[in-house]
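Hi support team,

I'm opening this ticket because the web form for multi-chain structure prediction keeps timing out on my end. I have pasted the exact lines I submitted so you can reproduce it. The total is 225 residues across two entries, so I didn't expect it to be a heavy job. Is there a limit I'm missing, or should I split the entries? Thanks in advance, R.K.
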Amino acid sequence: GAGVSQTPSNKVTEKGKYVELRCDPISGHTALYWYRQSLGQGPEFLIYFQGTGAADDSGLPNDRFFAVRPEGSVSTLKIQRTERGDSAVYLCASSLRGAESPLHFGNGTRLTVT
Amino acid sequence: RKEVEQDPGPFNVPEGATVAFNCTYSNSASQSFFWYRQDCRKEPKLLMSVYSSGNEDGRFTAQLNRASQYISLLIRDSKLSDSATYLCVVNAPTGANNLFFGTGTRLTVIP
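Hello R.K., no limit was hit. The queue was backed up. Here is the completed structure from your submission:
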């Protein structure tokens, strides 16, 4: 079946601009995670949704970052006033039930802020 | 203190060698443990879950030591195709029960 889909695969934007990154999880997966990964590092937790609600947003680095999942399926990660330090690969993952189920990752969105 | 800590390596081993990685976690109430594999410029993929009694999948063996709060991954008879970064993943049961990754351990198997 279809896996986790992330769009765009690459995004180049200028410092100060607004970007939206989209994640389409596996159908039926209630849990959705956003991670950010920089070169040579492991994925850094950003936010976790269980259904429509953000169960844990403690990983969002500051208030420029926001994510939604209005219908409990597709999620959008929004970054305002982008900074060069936001450049990374943004990974989305979904799982059937949450932490006790394995994560299935999308291919990621490579964000470059110039 | 980080939720999950790993030795980043790199580990360079000859083909056929046995290699082991450890990972420590900070929350004694954690219940879910996994090893993921990540190839260069690819997304992480589940390698195996780690069960309390330990588990084996072919050449791979995972162990959990709750008393010392670490998990391990043993790879026997290393293949060139095992070259990758191995990520330790642990749940954080306080709050929303989400999942945290270690920084990963880089393995290169040399012919």
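A quick check on our side: The mean pLDDT of chain B is 92. Let us know if the file doesn't open in your viewer.
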